[in-house]
Design goal:
Layout (H helix, E strand, L loop, with lengths): L5 E2 L1 H9 L8 E8 L5 E8 L6 E5 L2 E5 L11 E7 L2 E7 L5 E2 L5 E3 L1
Parallel strand pairs: 1-6, 2-5
Antiparallel strand pairs: 2-3, 3-9, 4-5, 6-7, 8-9
Length: 107
């Protein structure tokens, strides 16, 4: 059963820290063709659009456009902080392989 993506509390907390909602922005998670594995994630602060799925928590919003939604079914959007840096990450059960940097994948 395909469920919409989920957003972790840690990801919503990071959006609150950077003040996304105060600026009227949401975190947009999209899938585009390209990258070394065939598809790549595009993650950016953006304005929500009419056809977006809006995921809300802690006063923050994450949006996914209707074209990207099937690629992100059952995925988890999280925020990771490590010694090498901090970033939003996607745990995508639909991906059959991914590149080493984690920004591109194949299905």
């Amino acid at each position: 059963m395909n469920l919409p993506p989920q957003v972790t509390p840690r990801a919503f907390d990071r959006l609150a820290e950077i003040g996304a909602a105060a600026e009227g922005k949401a975190l947009r998670v999209a899938v585009e063709g390209g990258g070394c594995s065939g598809f790549q994630y595009d993650i950016a602060l953006d304005d929500p659009k009419d056809d977006d799925l809006i995921l809300e928590g802690a006063g923050q919003k994450v949006v996914v456009d209707s074209i990207s939604l099937p690629f992100l079914a059952n995925a988890v959007i999280d925020f990771s902080e490590e010694l090498i840096g901090a970033r939003f990450v996607i745990e995508n059960p639909n991906a059959t392989s991914a590149c080493g940097c984690g920004t591109s994948f194949s299905m």
